[in-house]
Design brief:
This protein has 195 residues and is α/β, with parallel strands linked by helices. It has 7 helices and 9 strands.
Length: 195
Amino acid sequence: MVNKIKLATVYPEHLNLNGDQANILVLQRRLQLRGVESEVIAVNDNDDLTNYEFIFLGHGSLAAWSHIDAKRPDLIRDVLEACDNGSFIFAVASGYERFSKVRGVSAAKPASHRSEFVDVNGIVGYINTDSALEPFIFDDHALLTLLHGPLLAKNPELADDLISKFGWADTTIRNQRLDEQDRLAKLSRHTAFEH
């Protein structure tokens, strides 16, 4: 296990339209509850992206992306380059769409608009899009999702999968606070479909 984890988050003040930044906080808290110190580092205008093992790219409005494009027009290419050099990318909604487009992956045609809670192979989240991209992809290089908001809060096992993937902590370690987080997540997942 490592002593201190650095979690990069790209333009967190702009790419947090649906509380996406909470994913980083959930990851950080689950590390803390296993005795591992971490630091969340904001990456903005001229900040280097080459030395991070983990990079988070949230969802933003058209105005937010317009601001980012004016300040750092090659941002997504920089994120893709970091991914190609070994960084793991966690991208949400518009962050995922932009990353995929630069990566050369695009949906064949727009889908009909969806705005609902969904369960994608056991991962529960809220989708609000007309994108025809896969709603959830988790592979060796990236976690890409159209599911908005604090996805890891509803799916703590996914946070633990990330922690385990990088060898940051022993995810078999349990305590009362982790059990309580998992209990609340289970209730949240259940409540999402009670409408």
